[in-house]
Specification:
The chain has 242 residues and is of the alpha+beta class. The protein contains 9 helices and 4 strands, in the order αααββαββααααα.
Length: 242
Amino acid sequence: MTKHNKTFQFSQKTVNIFDLQGKDLDFLETPIMESAKNNKEALAFMDDLARKGVDLVNTVIKFTKQTIEEGEYDQVQLSYLAGFLDSDGTINVSTSRTAKKAGYRFPFKAQLTVSFIQKDRRKEFLEAFKECFGGAGNIRQMKSGVCEYNITDEQVIVPLLKLLLPYLRVKKRQAALAILFTEFPKKLLSVSDYFLRAMLVDVLCSYNDSKNHQNTAKKIKDELVKANLLSAEDLELTRFVV
């Protein structure tokens, strides 16, 4: 048996890698705050979003821990999945243009996706995840030599993220915002709620350091203003958009 290298010490007694001193719950740490600083409505939106995010995380963690203590789920597997999602996964909302004749009220639609990513030679790990999640989602083989296991069904995503939330660190905020995203109604969104959701998506994507998020709330609003599709009342109700 090889001897342990004495120069290596795992400082589990002095350093807690799970204690980030609230950094993983800092919903106000986003580039959007720079744009919002001179807009009191935008600052109020960000403060409200931060409060809702922290409240949701605390509520979910309390419920999930109780569920795990009752023996319904395996804590080791959940913590492993959370670590996998933190490092080799994404929680993202893509915003794309709607078809003109598809009956959409607004010119852009949003789609929540949770993805797990691996090299194609390790595709069996993703297949095991898919089986574990009841076969939901699909595994896509990319030309770059990686596989993406994508889940878009919110009835799968929400309970999954709630189970993983106590163990997530890097993507805890994205998970909370993704759950809040799903709480908006799917149909008959008011103009105000549509842009509240769009701003939430902007914040979520900013934590992903995404350069692909081009259809921001401001871009959408500017387009609607240019097309004279927002009333004076709509403009007043959406002053928080930056």
